[in-house]
Amino acid sequence: MGTIHDGFDELYRQFFPQLVAYLVKIGMGHEAEDAAQETMGLVYLGWDTLDHPTRWAYRVASRTASRALHRRRVGQDKVALSVEGGWCPIADPEPDGVLVKESEQELLDLLRTLPVQQRKVMALHLDGHPDEEIAAILQVRTGTVRSHRRHALNSLRTSFTAAHRPAGEQNEEGSGPEERRS
């Protein structure tokens, strides 16, 4: 016999790891799993009224992340700051099931340099969501998604290139080593 929550278990098993990964990409770090769990609890409560539960979950998780990142910026989340600052170490800073390789960590570090909206767009884009879906999740126009992605890619390209420039190679501003002419 079915309940109004038929299908939720399957959605949870498939979607929860994606939601945690999304939150890690947009800068939540060790708080990602808790935020995803809270979001999925809200999805469960509203299951019978949601037309697009994954879109709604991304939207709720994005707002939760924005609030957490704002609190962190203004210094209200002292526990998170102490953990990240190394004053209160935790056993495993990565959420269960999210193994981060060195190249993935570099990408996460680069994503954290982006403004929050660009970071959200890129996190969803990297997970394979089309522009229209990203626009629906973030409640913005498709053109805004494309614009955020373009600016983010330009910033990421510049940051990546600067980080991987061979020693002694001249940069864009021309401040590299000067060539001597005889």
Number of helical elements:
8
Q: Separation of termini?
A: 89 Å
- Describe the global form: elongated
> What is the mean predicted local confidence, pLDDT?
78
Report low-confidence residues grouped into runs of 5 or more.
86-93, 175-182
Main beta sheet strand tally, sense and closure? none
CATH topology of the largest domain, by name, is Rna Polymerase Sigma Factor, Chain: A
Percentage of residues assigned to helices: 55-70%
| Secondary structure tally: strands | 0
Strand proportion, as a percent range, falls in under 5%
Number of domains: 2
List keywords for this structure.
single chain; Rna Polymerase Sigma Factor, Chain: A; mainly alpha; Arc Repressor Mutant, subunit A; 182 residues; 2 domains; 8 helices; disordered C terminus
What do these coordinates show?
The chain is mainly α and 182 residues long. Helices cover 61% and strands 0% of the residues. It has eight helices and no strands. The protein is elongated. The protein starts with 7 loop residues before the first helix and ends in a 19-residue tail after the last helix. 23% of the residues are buried.
